[in-house]
Design a protein that fits this description.
mainly alpha, 2 strands
């Protein structure tokens, strides 16, 4: 193949991998016009292609080989971007659990980024986590991960053991992170419920559970506000964990 052909194949490979990465992550959401998303991806592709060409390796010279190569690019991009989306969904899950504890589960707001209705705190946590991704430079780290993925010795295939292990490990990490984020409010809710149960046992005429509901909501909101800085630490930890699992998957 000529140098021009190699550059062209590399360009499309980078474009496919970047598109799968950013469109599966929460960084380029559906609220951003498609023209702007396309312009950003094409501009990034032009910028990254010269850096990727030396690491492209052997370029397939038949259509089937090219299709398999682009399929591997899609899987790699989905792995990188999907883990970032899983991280943000962990915060949304924590918010939903908090709303359940505070009695706000029936209040629903529409989240246009994922196209479904969620509880208020879940929506707040989701949006905060999305903003924090930019603050901790996750968009730069995603681009770096895409470039580094071309140094992988093997290409990802559907159902590969390394990819599945990385996904399973990260799901476990994000699940634990969601529990840790919701733990302060859940702990306060548990204490209030136990106290109301003891009061109900001693003086059942007072209907303590009805009295405990506003107390639970008020204290829960205070604890929620006090624990908001933990979102930044959680996102920072989650991004590091995601990059670790991505590198492990690409290393095979």
């Amino acid at each position: 193949m000529t140098i021009d052909t190699i550059w062209l194949v590399t360009f499309f490979s980078v474009f496919v991998r970047l598109s799968a990465t950013f469109l599966s992550s929460p960084l380029l959401g559906p609220m951003l016009p498609a023209q702007i998303r396309g312009f950003i991806l094409i501009a990034l592709t032009f910028a990254l292609t010269p850096a990727v060409v030396p690491h492209m390796g052997e370029v397939p010279d038949d259509m089937l080989g090219l299709l398999l190569r682009f399929g591997s690019d899609i899987l790699t991009g989905l792995l990188i971007g999907g883990m970032m989306h899983l991280l943000v969904l962990a915060f949304q899950t924590a918010g939903g659990f908090i709303d359940t504890q505070l009695g706000l589960a029936s209040a629903q707001v529409f989240n246009p980024l994922i196209g479904v209705s969620v509880t208020p705190t879940a929506n707040l946590k989701y949006l905060l986590a999305g903003v924090m991704l930019f603050i901790v430079d996750a968009h730069h780290l995603l681009i770096q991960a895409v470039v580094e993925s071309y140094n992988a010795t093997t290409q990802l295939t559907l159902g590969s053991e390394a990819m599945l292990n990385a996904a399973i490990n990260f799901v476990g990490i994000t699940s634990l992170l969601a529990l840790q984020i919701a733990a302060p409010v859940a702990g306060v809710s548990l204490i209030i419920d136990v106290s109301a149960s003891l009061i109900n046992r001693a003086v059942p005429q007072t209907q303590p559970f009805l009295l405990a509901l506003p107390a639970k909501l008020g204290l829960g909101m205070l604890i929620l506000a006090a624990s908001l800085p933990a979102v930044a630490m959680g996102v920072d930890f989650g991004v590091d964990a995601a990059l670790t699992q991505i590198r492990a998957a690409l290393a095979g």
